[in-house]
């Protein structure tokens, strides 16, 4: 997706510390404003162009303008749940970009469900969770073949 297609929707383009800008765009869907700002800043510093929304409804509205290359998605939020949003993106919108799910809950998601929507899960409360693990998960999602449903 081009940066200009998200321009009027609050997309932040950024250059890495070495001056290189990535072509990948990432949508952050997180209702906790401090985490949303932190992850957006971290992604921008790594060269990603980002947009951040606080709920599923805003995410769907943004998808009508352009699809991001990847989504960082919180599961628990007001309105449309993260899992419902993910299913809608994969099945109804045929979205094949990378998805990193970040959750504070220790949810057990059935393996067949995870395979159907092809995403990676990180737990906010886990002592191994960091901005670096988020970036690494995002890189894995961007490098893998498109998800099928």
Describe it.
This protein has 149 residues and is an alpha/beta fold. The chain has a single domain (3-143), classed as 3-Layer(aba) Sandwich (Rossmann fold). It has 6 helices and 5 strands; from the N terminus they run αβαβαβαβαβα. A 5-stranded parallel β-sheet has the order 2-1-3-4-5. Helix 4 links the parallel strand 3 (70-74) and strand 4 (98-103). Mean pLDDT is 77; it is low at 1-5.
Write a compact overview of the structure shown:
This protein has helices spanning 3-6, 33-45, 56-63, 82-92, 111-117, 131-143; strands spanning 25-29, 49-53, 70-74, 98-103, 120-123.
Percent of residues in β-strands? 15-25%
Contiguous uncertain segments of 5+ residues:
1-5
Mean pLDDT: 77
Number of domains: 1
- Helical content band: 25-40%
CATH class: Alpha Beta
Shape descriptor reads: globular
Helix-strand topology string: HEHEHEHEHEH
The name of the CATH superfamily reads Response regulator
Largest sheet features: 5 strands, parallel
Arrangement of strands in the largest sheet = 2-1-3-4-5
Measured between the Cα atoms of the first and last residue, the distance is 22 Å
Could you please say which CATH topology applies here? Rossmann fold
In DSSP terms (H or I, runs of 4 or more residues), the helix count works out at: 6
- CA gyration radius, whole angstroms: 14 Å
Q: Give the CATH architecture.
A: 3-Layer(aba) Sandwich
Query: How many E strands?
Result: 5
